[in-house]
Design brief:
The complex is a heterodimer of chains A (377) and B (83).
Chain A (H helix, E strand, L loop, with lengths): L8 H40 L6 H8 L3 H26 L2 H9 L7 E3 L8 H4 L16 H12 L10 H7 L9 E5 L5 H9 L5 E6 L2 H14 L4 E4 L12 E7 L7 H14 E11 L8 H7 L1 H5 L5 H5 L3 H7 L3 E7 L25 E6 L12
Parallel strand pairs in A: 1-4, 2-3, 2-5, 3-4, 5-6
Antiparallel strand pairs in A: 6-8, 7-8
Helix pairs in contact in A: 1-3, 2-11, 3-6, 7-8
Chain B lengths: L10 H33 L4 H9 L2 H19 L6
Classes of the chains: A alpha/beta (377), B mainly alpha (83).
Chain lengths: 377, 83
């Protein structure tokens, strides 16, 4: 990642405190809550003859628990503290960092900004996951992200491990792709992993709406010596020619857009893929694959973590949605990757503890072209 | 106006927790800095730990701090007596 001035003693101490607070919240409050829930679920079963089977039933048992209220309140506060600490840690170096960002990228990295692109209101009217100004409203959102992502996954002193992103990039069925598109590329972590995993690809493109974050991710790619094209574009209407990509990825994008925009993005992905091309979507596990109490806890993000579209997205049956848009061979499952310091699956469970369903991968293929004899090419 | 999220029955309860946690963070920053200061002094040959423990038991310090403590407690708890 681009070299930032080192954090001060005060910054480091704040980061340590916030990380410790999140770990405490999970290991005591959330875990204690789930222990209490087991007993309540048994009592429920005695009365009703079945265990709670819906998020609503599980929620009615969880909500009155004081640990639930403490866990939610603490997570909410910790998230605000995290963004503030991150912003404070770069404030003193504002001009120096801006000057770094103004340098045009070189060494095979292309940055194409579109000042005329109109940012949608759903994007600008929400401070997504409580980030002040969202991705678009602060110039230093890139460096702030770089500082805080480690705290978020409670491993800031160890640094962010690119292993999971390499694993996601390697999920695609083929070993070679000619043109790859990463929708909602954000800090460029997956885009860079795609370039590493597919070094022979003619083009790897990352698109995002945010000027500031594209500038930062292009610097990151340049520092890593990775040939990537970053373009400011709307994933729901990219402007790229149809059937021009063999692999498209969307990492933690769809839960941050309204459902109707998500549908447009999926339609756009289908249009952009060549026949036989692949789509990989990585998100938190959808509610339908989780036990109801974990789905209920995961839903905290919708109300308590500034993720207005989280619940509406994770409530959907994404595989069915993909099939509805024409994708075939649709499959889903946990990311097959173990790392002790990997982030958890939901806001209340975001800690260094590994869980097999930390990241959920949904994949689909664009049907291959049918030959005249009815066989697929 | 955006609705204010609150986990406890009243918003003010969440805000109080937020203030307490913010204070906790500030305290942690100070503890960390004090620890580092003592290490800096130690590197200069000044063993603060033993000196501090010795002074802590001195009658002058105890008397001073008891006065300070009582004044601190008055200020800290003043809100309980205010309407």
């Amino acid at each position: 990642m681009p070299q930032l001035p080192p954090p001060s003693q005060q910054d480091c101490a704040y980061f340590d405190f916030i990380e410790g607070l999140k770990i405490y919240n999970y290991t005591r409050n959330v875990k204690g809550l789930l222990e209490n829930y087991k007993e309540k679920a048994s009592e429920f079963q005695e009365k009703k003859g079945y265990l709670p089977s819906t998020m609503e039933e599980a929620g009615r048992l969880l909500e009155p628990d004081l640990l639930y209220q403490f866990a939610c309140a603490t997570q909410h506060v910790a998230q605000h503290m995290m963004w503030s600490a991150g912003a404070d840690s770069v404030k003193e170096h504002h001009e120096e960092i801006l000057a770094m960002m103004q340098q045009p990228p070189g060494d095979g990295v292309r940055l194409e900004l579109n000042p005329g692109l109109k940012l949608p209101t759903w994007y600008t009217e929400h401070d997504i996951h409580l980030t002040p100004g969202g991705y678009w409203g602060q110039e230093l959102v890139g460096p702030v992200y770089q500082r805080v992502l480690g705290i978020y996954s409670t491993s800031w002193r160890r640094g962010r491990n690119p292993g999971a992103f390499l694993k996601i990039a390697g999920c695609a069925p083929k070993r070679q792709y000619r043109r790859i598109l990463d929708m909602g590329s954000s800090t460029g972590a997956l885009t860079m992993a795609l370039r590493r995993v597919y070094p022979e690809a003619e083009e790897v493109i990352g698109i995002d709406l945010s000027t500031a974050i594209l500038k930062w991710s292009s610097l990151a790619a340049q520092e890593q010596g990775l040939k990537i094209r970053f373009a400011q574009a709307d994933a729901s209407n990219t402007g790229f020619p149809g059937e021009s990509f063999e692999l498209i990825t969307a990492h933690l994008l769809l839960h941050e857009v309204p459902p109707e925009v998500g549908d447009q993005i999926l339609r756009e992905a289908f249009r952009l893929l060549r026949p036989g091309g692949h789509l990989i979507i990585v998100e938190s596990p959808r509610y339908g694959v989780l036990p109801p109490e974990l789905a209920f806890l995961e839903d905290f993000d919708t109300r308590g973590n500034g993720e207005a579209f989280w619940g509406p997205f994770l409530s959907r049956d994404l595989p069915s949605v993909l099939r509805g848009f024409g994708f075939v061979e649709v499959r889903e499952g946990p990311l097959d990757y173990e790392e002790p310091t990997y982030w958890g699956s939901a806001a209340l469970m975001r800690t260094g503890e590994f869980k097999p369903y930390n990241r959920w991968v949904t994949q689909g293929d664009k049907p291959a072209v049918q030959q005249r004899d009815g066989k697929n090419k | 106006m955006t609705e204010i999220y609150h986990a406890f029955p009243e918003v003010v309860q969440d805000k109080l927790l937020g203030m307490i946690l913010a204070l906790g963070a500030e305290l942690w920053v100070v503890k960390d800095r004090l620890s580092l200061l003592e290490q800096v002094l130690k590197s200069k040959g000044i063993e603060t730990r033993d000196m501090i423990d010795e002074l802590a038991g001195s009658s002058d310090h105890v008397a001073d701090m008891q006065r300070e403590r009582d004044a601190f407690m008055e200020r800290f708890m003043r809100t309980l007596t205010q309407a």
